[in-house]
Every structure is written in C-alpha cells, then in structure tokens.
Design goal:
single chain, 346 residues, mainly beta, globular
C-alpha cells in the first residue's frame, strides 16, 4: 500500500511541470536604412536608420484541466531607433535620442482558452486591425500600407489606445473555428460614455482567406494627418472587407475600407507576391486614399505604390530592398522612399 501511494506521489510530481508550460521568450530586431524624397523645395531628404516594430515578449499557458487553459502574453516594443516617418523630410534626431532604448507596450493580456474559444483581457489588436497585416506582404516594413503610403487606415491599423489599432482596456472573444468560420468581438471598458466596440468574421482554408470587419466608437477629431469636421470622427463607424488567395508560386490580396466617418477617408488596397523560389520573393502593392471634403480640400486624394524584393537567409532571418511612392493631388506633396532592411527573429 505504501509503495502504491509513493508511486502515485512520484507520478504526480513528475506530471505537475507539464501542466504549466515553460514561458516562451520571443522577439525580433528589425532595422532599415531609408532614403526619403519629396516635392517640397529645399527639402533635406536625409538618409536615416529606423526601427520597424522591433519587439521583445514572453507568452505561455497553463493547463487547468477539462480542456481549459489559462493564457498570457506580455510584449514590448523596443525603441532601437525612430519609426519610419510619414514625413520623409522630418528631423529624426529632434527629441528622438532620449527615447532610444525605451520599452513601449504592445499586446499584453491574460485570458482563458477552451472548447468555447478564447476570452482575453488587456491590450491587444482589435478585430479591425488584425487582418490588415494578413493581406499586406510589406507589413512592418517602411513600405507598409498603413505607413507613409496611406493605402490602409493608419489610425485603425496602428498605434495604441482605446480607439487605435492596438486597443487598451479591452475584452476580446475569439470563437473556435467551425467549417473554417471564426468570429472575433471586442469592446473597451474604460468607464467613458462612448466605448470602442467591434466585430469581425473570417473564413479560411488552405488557399483562401475572406473577412469582414466593423468597428464603432469615439475617436478624436484629429486622426493621423486627417483632420475631421465635427461631428465626423467623433462617434462613428468603419467597415472593411478583404480577402487573399495563396498558391505555391504566388499570392494576391485585396482590401476595401469604408472609414470616412471615422478617419475622414476611404481606402482601397491591392497586393501581389511572386515566389521566385523558397527563399526569394517579389511583392507589389497599390492603393488609393479617397479623402472626403469634410476632412480637407475637395479631391485631395492620394495614390500609393510599392515594390519590394525579399530574401530569406534562414527561417528566422531575412533581408529586403524596396521602393515606395505616394502621389498626392495637392502640389508639392508627393513623397517616395528607398529602403533596405534586415529582420532577425528569435
């Protein structure tokens, strides 16, 4: 009897560590050298090094039994250098040196996951933001659509806050996949009169991804470089639809955003990638920003295009070189950028 009890105790002791998975430390260091140009007379157009969402994080889970897990994630942005600027002629060093080495909050949440799906509390990408990077092959490079090209909404796909792409004070529910269909719903709990809430639906299989997202809530009358006239951009909604087809040799994607009431503009985005082989690819993106009269001068729209060559040196390291340009209807507003970068994941 004593031997049986001892055997059970030893077995339980050995099994306990398996229930609490060891935390996973991960991150990436992503730097690029950028040469910017614009139409402004006497522009400086300096070469600059930028950090492109370099990050450090820890994540993990604990098995609670009966198919239930506790999950957590703490991710921080690492300010190795300034972000790529939407004004290629700005002085990167002005006020920027003191921030180098600082940590900023990114996805930071705790929650439960099981057969019902997952519920998370904290700071995380909103339903609206999540799919933007899925269709943009240049995501998290200086030529991404949500950046200076402005072919995706910068306010709703980037930043951190109750009304930005990475929502704070948020509860989010993600359903389990059923026949390839998944639902995502989130809302802020900030104690304010108007919370930011959204819902999205995705359908995917091996080759296809299709999605639709809706978000509503209070934002600012100034979002990015778009200034809205009240009551626009205060308590308004945005919707978007998109999709992607992926094959071994290539992929194509498209996204449309009806966001004029929330950001002052609508956006159309197209992307394609040709895989030369397993380690080399060429990507092309094209898009338009249709600014509304309430947010600026009539017909003050823009068109953005970017081309990038990417080389995988390993599963964790890649280098790239690319060119992007944004053409504005307004005079002396066109901007372009040549970039070369390296990203090391760990």
């Amino acid at each position: 009897m004593k031997k049986s009890i001892l055997a059970i105790a030893v077995a339980a002791t050995m099994a306990a560590p398996a229930a609490i998975a060891a935390p996973t430390v991960y991150g990436n260091v992503h730097l690029s050298l950028n040469q910017a140009d614009n139409d402004i007379p006497d522009a400086k157009n300096n070469l600059s090094v930028s950090s492109n969402t370099s990050a450090l994080g820890v994540k993990g889970s604990e098995d609670l039994g009966d198919g239930l897990k506790a999950i957590y994630k703490l991710e921080f942005g690492v300010t190795i250098g300034p972000k790529p600027t939407t004004d290629p002629d700005s002085d990167y060093l002005t006020g920027g040196e003191s921030a180098v080495g600082a940590l900023t909050g990114r996805d930071q949440f705790v929650g439960l996951k099981g057969g019902f799906g997952a519920i998370k509390f904290g700071t995380m990408s909103s339903n609206y933001k999540q799919m933007g990077g899925k269709v943009d092959p240049l995501y998290r490079t200086p030529l991404e659509g949500r950046g200076f090209l402005q072919t995706q909404s910068s306010a709703l796909h980037g930043g951190r806050g109750m009304n930005r792409g990475r929502q704070t004070h948020t509860a989010q529910y993600v359903s389990p996949k059923m026949a390839g269909i998944q639902l995502v719903a989130n809302t802020t709990f900030s104690g304010s009169e108007d919370e930011t809430s959204g819902i999205g639906i995705r359908w995917s299989n091996k080759a296809f991804l299709v999605y639709a997202d809706y978000i509503t809530g209070r934002t600012s009358t100034t979002t990015g470089d778009i200034t809205c006239v009240s009551p626009a951009c205060e308590t308004e909604a945005a919707t978007k639809v998109g999709g992607k087809f992926s094959a071994k040799a290539f992929s194509v994607a498209a996204q449309y955003e009806s966001a004029e009431d929330r950001t002052g503009a609508d956006y159309a985005f197209l992307a394609g990638t040709f895989n030369i082989n397993a380690n080399n690819a060429i990507s092309l993106t094209y898009g338009m920003q249709d600014r509304k009269e309430a947010s600026g001068a009539p017909d003050d729209d823009s068109t953005g295009v970017a081309l990038l060559y990417n080389h995988k040196m390993s599963k964790m390291t890649n280098v790239y070189v690319g060119y992007g340009a944004r053409a504005e209807d307004a005079d002396n507003e066109d901007v372009s950028m040549i970039t070369a970068g390296i990203r090391k994941k760990f």
